[in-house]
Design a protein that fits this description.
Elements lengths: L7 E7 H10 L3 E2 L1 H9 L3 E11 L4 H14 L2 E7 L1 E4 L5 E4 L3 H11 L5 E5 L6 H9 L3 E6 L10 H6 L2 E4 L4 H4 E2 L3
Parallel strand pairs: 1-3, 1-7, 3-4, 7-8, 8-9
Antiparallel strand pairs: 2-10, 5-6
């Protein structure tokens, strides 16, 4: 992982994507160790955690994590999911944090040198390119070690650096009991 000590860093976590990636790799993330890892690499500015919440169900299980992250140095950004009924009468849940992540990163381009983006979602390829055009470095953290890989090939190619989450397991994770 190449991060220069003089670079101002921000961690941007796509919560649902990171959760799915870690679950696929069969480990749990220690978010304090994750924060400390990047604090030791450069001039850490802020860590952001973005996630959707289903206020009717998921909020019960995700609230302790969000409170923990909030009390331990992360800025939390949430948005409620939306329920709707499709044309076949099936209830569906939808939501996305893409716009919130994009706005936050673009707002920070004047004060951040290096973004550490935790996602494998190919929808962020254009955002990464836009942030790079503003002079920022973007490292993408996901994995190619799972089947199928959790990172889109286009996003991995657009990033200045790809960091495989699998390679960080011993540093920021623990195997669930």
């Amino acid at each position: 992982m190449l991060i220069y000590p003089n670079q101002k860093l921000a961690i941007i976590i796509d919560g649902s994507n990171l959760y799915a990636t870690a679950k696929n790799l069969e480990f749990e993330i220690d978010y304090i160790k994750l924060l400390n890892l990047f604090k030791s690499k450069g001039q850490f500015v802020r860590g952001y955690y973005f996630t959707l919440v289903d206020e009717s169900h998921e909020m019960i299980s995700i609230r302790p994590l969000l409170d923990f992250l909030d009390y331990n140095g992360y800025s939390i950004r949430t948005k409620p999911t939306k329920s709707f009924t499709d044309n076949y009468g099936n209830e569906k849940i939808k939501g996305s944090m893409h716009v919130e992540i994009a706005v936050t990163m673009m707002e920070l381009t004047d004060s951040i040198d290096h973004f550490i983006l935790f996602t494998g979602d190919g929808d962020f390829e254009g955002l990464v390119e836009g942030v790079q055009k503003k002079g920022c470095v973007v490292s993408v953290v996901s994995t190619v070690k799972s089947r199928p890989p959790m990172v889109s090939d286009q996003l991995r190619r657009q990033a200045d650096q790809f960091i495989d989450l699998y390679d960080l397991i011993k540093i920021v994770g623990s195997v669930p009991p």
